[in-house]
């Protein structure tokens, strides 16, 4: 694999070329001063940790085999307007100084693992969908400017990263991977609009959604989630709500009022959810419309009865067929042993 050259080396070669040009025109002293100025300015164009993180993404994910890698293999300044790196978006923070605000490498044949992304301290948008990424998701909880993280349709494994308190995060989508564990806290996410965790191997309960008051789209379908459906009664901006194909129990959640749910754009079943005791209630009718199914509970089933434990107080276990057979065998063997017991010799007194 052809690794990306270090940024500093490329900058120094550029500065040296300019210095040699000046040397021919102005003499050595001015040329050396100019080279130092050019080198310092070019290196300051983008902070070193941001360049290093981009290089890690390239080297960890087979950059030489990417569908498009324009200017990545050549190094240089990722934010150079004349030769920007494919998929990298930059902004000017001060004269001559840039920051990386976006990396979009979706559907680009990335094959490997995502490195730590903490060096991209100013990043707002990260997109890695439709590649062949494996391994865990990197930590995101120090990327305070992050607004969107999308990595759908890969083979990512391990737990979800902590995202609580990322106040700018409006989209977090990691659908159709192999992520496991529980859903972390979703507290203090005031900007969140779109949360998609569908098609993974997540377990446990759905945490409170109250920390996302403006939530519009919520997908956790096709996991292994348990417990009650979350309370959504205060989410008046909610448009799509998919919790189907899990193991949730209890009543359907109360539809927000006023409701923004789009007809035929929600899913509650299969689960173990139940309609109102005396249908159709207003809530059931609202879910009929939102799910496009009448009744909405048609594909839900009753929760399986918990297994009876013989240790429960007051519970007498019913013997199984095998237990009956063992008991009968023990009785027969006991009777046979009794029949074969040695008889005692008559005593002298009994003989007269």
What does this structure look like?
With 352 residues, this protein is of the alpha/beta class. The chain has one domain: Ribonuclease Inhibitor (Leucine-rich repeat, LRR (right-handed beta-alpha superhelix)), CATH 3.80.10. It is 23% helix and 19% strand. The chain contains 6 helices and 17 strands. It has helices at residues 7-26, 28-43, 48-60, 282-291, 321-339, 348-351, and strands at residues 88-94, 97-104, 111-112, 125-127, 132-135, 148-150, 155-158, 171-173, 178-182, 194-196, 201-204, 217-219, 224-228, 240-242, 247-251, 266-267, 272-274. It starts with 6 loop residues before the first helix and ends with a helix. 33% of the residues are buried.
Structural class: alpha/beta
- Gyration radius, in Å: 34 Å
CATH superfamily: Ribonuclease Inhibitor
Spans of at least 5 consecutive residues whose pLDDT stays below 50 are 1-44, 344-352
Mean pLDDT: 83
- CATH class categorisation: Alpha Beta
The fraction of residues assigned to DSSP E strands is 15-25%
Q: Tell me the domain tally.
A: 1
Helix content: 10-25%
| Strands side by side in the biggest sheet | 1-2-4-6-8-10-12-14-16
Tell how many strands the DSSP assignment holds: 17
Quick structural gist:
23% of the residues lie in helices and 19% in strands. The chain has 352 residues and is α/β, with parallel strands linked by helices. It has a single domain, classed as Ribonuclease Inhibitor (Leucine-rich repeat, LRR (right-handed beta-alpha superhelix)), CATH 3.80.10.
